[in-house]
Structure formats: C-alpha cells, structure tokens
Write a structure and sequence with these properties.
Largest sheet: 5 strands, mixed
Shape: globular
Oligomer: single chain
CATH architecture: 2-Layer Sandwich
Distance between the termini: 43 Å
Strand order of the largest sheet: 3-2-1-4-5
CATH class: Alpha Beta
CATH superfamily: Ribonuclease H-like superfamily/Ribonuclease H
CATH topology: Nucleotidyltransferase, domain 5
Strand content: 15-25%
Number of domains: 1
Length: 223
Amino acid sequence: MKIATFDHEKAHIDAGYHLIAGVDEVGRGPLAGPVVTAACVIKDVSCFTRNMDDDRRWQLIRDSKLLSEKQRKEAYSFVEEYFFVGIGLSTPDTIDRINILQATFLAMKKAIADLEHAIDKAGAYADAERMIILVDGNQIIPNFTREQKCIAKGDQKVRTIAAASIIAKVTRDTMMEQYAVQYPQYGFDAHKGYGTKIHMEALKKYGATSIHRKSFAPVRNVL
C-alpha cells in the first residue's frame, strides 16, 4: 500500500522555504456537480521531522481514492486538526463557460486564497517569506504569482497533497449527497455525478438538472 510521506516537504524546508502548501482537486470527470479543490499547510513544521508511527491516523493521510468512506471521514477530521485548510470550487455554470481545466485552475486559486486567509486569521507563520505550492498532476496553475511545483501522482507521494485530496473528496461527496436530496431520481449520493449506467438512464428519462455540466457530451446530447 502506497503511503504518502513528508519527504518532499522536508526537502523544501531544507531548501529555505517556510510554507509548503499541497493542492489537489476532485471532480473533473463527473457529468454533474462542481469541481472542488483544497489547499493544505501543516500547522506545526516539526511534524516533518518527528516520528509519526505512533499515531496510526497519519497512515490515513494518503490518496483519498485509496481510503474507504469511513476512513476518509476520520482522515478529514485529522487533517483539520493538524493542517490549515482552504477550499475552492467552480460551479457547473463556470465549467460550461470556461471549460473544466480552466475551472479547475480557478478553483485552485480560490482554495489557496482561502488557505492564506485561514493562516492569517490564526496569526500563524507571521514571519514566513517563502511559500511554494505543490500541485498534484503535471500542470502548474497558470497566471499565478506564487512559486509552484507540479508532482505527478502527488496525492500518493506527498502527505500535504494527500491531505488536500481528502479534504476535497469529502467536501465534494457531501455536496453531492445534499444534491441527492434535492434531485432524488438521479442517485447522486451513490455515483457522485459520474457517468454510471444508473446516472445515464436517469439523464435520458428526466433530462438535465441545474447542476449538470451542459458542455459535457452525454449531458449535451439529452438537451
């Protein structure tokens, strides 16, 4: 089982950085709902060098896709305890207007701004001068002034990115479960907006809702 570590964070601290933020997204592929991103920064940098093996919860801070729903919820609370957290999203309307990739980048910028607000509100890292954003994937955020580094499969390697993946996943899943109450015939609580057989059948039978991404071909085809 692949467990993310703080190796990347420690290397950047040794290189002179003060804040190492991990950023990840959830929900680029679904036909409905927002794309959600999260950004995380550890509250106590001594965590990078301490032995964490005594607390099994650190083993949960890995790629959210490798966790059960119960594990993700436990990990979510743990991340909120040990990390500053920022959340950003782009709505289906925004996705349709600027495309899913650009909407994801916009949501990442919102998450980082929300993270910086959380840090400022806590009065933490007041003397921090150098910040780097570790972005999951193979593309950095365009037109963004912060220093960045993209890391392929970062949610499997970098604990701060894994923390962000958990926050984003649980946040989006919760939103889709709420949409399931509003639109019970679509089963959003089960498939979270992905194009499953049940979802496709509901689309054909009931048409698109206000949370469907109308620029995505399977939705566009039923309009």
